[in-house]
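Lecture notes, unit on protein representations.

Consider one protein chain, 95 amino acids long.
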Amino acid sequence: MNREATRLEQLFGAIPGLFQHETALYIGASARRAHYLKDFLDAGAFVTILEPWPTNVAYWRGKTSAVDLYVVQGDVRRIDHACLPFQHYDVAFWW
């Protein structure tokens, strides 16, 4: 089994139906990597990226042509709920 398949098996074992949620808080998406972000979007989830670094925020804001992706600059240790589009999320993903 390849590494990617093993990761997905572990994810689905821990969180059945991981990509079947309507809203997802995706914590920490850099310009170089955002594992499984596309899977959330392809499944129809509205995704909020919470990212502390300004360069990564600018990168992802440049990619938000879809209405189902929202980017917030912030630190997960001090989330200001007023800056998030939802008060609650179906799943939080921090890879």
